[in-house]
Specification:
Blueprint: E1 6-15, E2 21-30, H1 34-53, E3 71-77, E4 83-89, E5 95-99, E6 104-108, H2 114-125, H3 133-151, E7 156-162, E8 165-170, H4 180-188, H5 193-202, E9 205-208, H6 230-247, E10 253-260, H7 266-279
Antiparallel strand pairs: 1-2, 3-4, 4-5, 5-9, 6-8, 7-8, 7-10
C-alpha cells in the first residue's frame, strides 16, 4: 500500500528568459521524515518549473498516479508483522479502509428511469406483483454476483447495500490489486474504471467506512491534511467532532447476504470485523 506518513510542500524559485522570478510548489511525500518529504516536493517542483519554462506542459497528474494525501489514523499488521490494512481520512473527511490484498468492490447502480417507473406502474395496474424499479436493479446486480460465485465454487463474497448501490467483499482468499486476474474479476462484477485504476496505482483496495458529510447535514471540511498551521488543524478537529457526532445516526452500508464459500481466510476475518463495526453494517440504521 502507498500510504506515506509524511507530506510537505516543496518550493523553488526559477528565473525565465527575461530574468523574471517565478515560484513553483509541489507536494512531496516520504516515510522517513517531513524534511525528506519537503526535499522531494522541491525536486518535483523543479521538474515542473523546467518543463513550463521550456514551453512544455508537464505531464498531467492522472487519477491515482501518486499516493493519496490522507492522514493515517490506524494500521493493522498480519501474522508476519506486515501492515496489510490501514484506516485513513480522505479529502472530504470520511474514514477509509485501505487493504493490501483484501478485495472490496463498490458498484454504483444507476437510478431508475422514467420508463422504468412507467412500466412498473403498468404492471401494478395489471395486478402483477413485481419489485419497484430500484429494488429490481439491485436484485439483478446481486444475481450477477451469484452467477459469478456459482461458476467459482471456491469463492466467498459478502454483499452489502450502500446508499448508491452494492459493495462486495471477497472473504475466501487474498488477491493482488495489480494482477490482471484481479482486474478481470472486478470488471466482471461491475467495478468503476477509475476505482480499478486507483487500486492498481495505489497497490490497495479501498472501502469508505463513514458517511459522506453532506448526507448527514455537514459541509465538507475547509482545511485539508497536512495542516498548514496549528490553527488549521484545530479548525479541522472542531469539524471532525461535529461530523463524528452526526454520523452516529447513520450506517455506511448494510449486510445483505453471504455467498459461496463460508470459510473466511484468517487474515480477512479481522478486517471483516473492523469493516462491519465501523460501517455499522448490521445496525439497521439509515444509509448515508
Amino acid at each position: 500500500m502507498r500510504l506515506p506518513h509524511y507530506w510537505a510542500k516543496g518550493t523553488v524559485q526559477v528565473r525565465d528568459g527575461q530574468q523574471k522570478l517565478h515560484a513553483f510548489s509541489c507536494w512531496g511525500w516520504s516515510d522517513r521524515s517531513a524534511a525528506d518529504a519537503e526535499r522531494k516536493g522541491s525536486e518535483r517542483a523543479q521538474k515542473v518549473a523546467e518543463r513550463l519554462l521550456e514551453g512544455s506542459r508537464p505531464d498531467r497528474y492522472l487519477y491515482g498516479d501518486r499516493p493519496l494525501r490522507e492522514e493515517v489514523l490506524e494500521q493493522f499488521e498480519d501474522a508476519q508483522g506486515v501492515v496489510h490494512a490501514a484506516i485513513t481520512r480522505n479529502s472530504y473527511g470520511c474514514r477509509v479502509l485501505n487493504t493490501a490484498e483484501i478485495v472490496f468492490v463498490d458498484v454504483d447502480l444507476a437510478p431508475p428511469t422514467l420508463g422504468d417507473h412507467i412500466r412498473y406502474g403498468l404492471h401494478r395496474l395489471l395486478g402483477k406483483s413485481i419489485p419497484p424499479p430500484a429494488r429490481q436493479r439491485e436484485l439483478d446486480a446481486i444475481a450477477k454476483v451469484q452467477s459469478w460465485v456459482n461458476a467459482e465454487p471456491r469463492c466467498g463474497v459478502r454483499v452489502y447495500r450502500t446508499r448508491a448501490g452494492l459493495r462486495h467483499m471477497f472473504t475466501h482468499r487474498q488477491m493482488d490489486p495489480k494482477s490482471e486476474a484481479t482486474v478481470r474479476t472486478m470488471v466482471a462484477l461491475g467495478a468503476d474504471p477509475l476505482y480499478l485504476r486507483l487500486c492498481k496505482e495505489q497497490e490497495s483496495f479501498r472501502a469508505r467506512l463513514t458517511p459522506k458529510p453532506w448526507r448527514c447535514g455537514v459541509a465538507a471540511p475547509q482545511v485539508r491534511f497536512p495542516w498548514a498551521s496549528p490553527q488549521a488543524e484545530s479548525r479541522f478537529r472542531e469539524w471532525e467532532r461535529d461530523y463524528e457526532a452526526r454520523t452516529q445516526r447513520y450506517a455506511t452500508c448494510e449486510l445483505v447476504q453471504e455467498m459461496g464459500n463460508s470459510t473466511v481466510h484468517r487474515e480477512i476475518r479481522r478486517v471483516v470485523e473492523i469493516h462491519d463495526r465501523l460501517t455499522k453494517a448490521t445496525s439497521g440504521l439509515p444509509l448515508a
